[in-house]
Amino acid sequence: MAELLNQITAFFEVIVLTIGYPGIFLVMFAENIFTPIPTEPFLPLAGILSGKGEMNFFVAWAAATAGATTGSLVLYLVGKRGGEPVVRALIRRFGRYAGISESELDRARELFNRYGPWVVFIGRWIPVVRPGVSLIAGISSLRLPVFLLFTALSSSLANVIWITVGYVLGENWQQFLAELDRYQSVVIAGAVLLAVIVVFVVGRRWVKSRRSEVMV
Question: Which residues contact 11 (CB under 8 A, 6 or more apart)?
Fold first, then answer.
């Protein structure tokens, strides 16, 4: 299985190098459906190419976010249209290929019931929960605009971090990744906290602007 994943990774790297932004979209789309495909080799590569002037940083970021959000949307629709019995049947039969098990779906369900839509936002940062979040959101009939908002915000934050790593560190990004693994839980907690603060500030300003419009 590991050898197969390495071959898939190399194949997707060729796609990114060959067709550029559409390749980034396709890779991130596939990565959000087939979770064993790692994100790390691709987005720093886009950052490296941006640093060399061969890609535009912001277009690469937009393509990655669009691909990740679209891939998550597919799983959301599977959950919403099929319902939990169908989803569980699919996981039993094909889950090992997509990198998701029923226990992970149950964990995602538990967290969704406890924290609601915020699990969609933070789920991308939690490997054990991530595969089942979009499915559970669909099964639970979370409103589509809310799902898309939280998914896009979470994906955009994760993507900009990885692309920036490649942009700043260039070919040395793999050494950084090795160090990062030692402090993974701290980094994830910090990134999630930062994301929550950003969303809170933006949301608060939006609410204030809406109130001002109503008062006028």
Answer: none
Residue 69 has pLDDT above 90, yes or no: yes
Query: What is the DSSP code string of 68-121?
Result: HHHHHHHHHHHHHHHHHHHHHHHHHHHHHHHT--HHHHHHHHHHHHHHTTHHHH
**Which H helix or E strand runs over 148?**
helix 144-169
> How much is the pTM?
0.72
pLDDT for 145 equals: 92
Helices H / strands E in the chain, number of each: 10, 0
- The number of CA neighbours under 13 Å toward the Cβ of 117 is 15
172: domain range? Answer: 2-182
Answer whether residue 212 is part of any domain: no
Task: Say how many domains are in the chain.
Answer: 1
Please give the angle made by the CA atoms of 4, 108 and 41, to the nearest 5 degrees.
Answer: 35
The tokens describing 31, both together, are 């990565």
pLDDT at residue number 210: 57
pLDDT tens figures, 169-190: 776 555 555 555 554 554 555 5
Question: Could you tell me if residue 62 is inside a domain?
Answer: yes
Tell me how far apart the alpha carbons of residues 141 and 121 are, in angstroms, rounded to a whole number: 16
Q: Is residue 110 part of a domain?
A: yes
For residue 131, being part of any structural domain is answered with yes
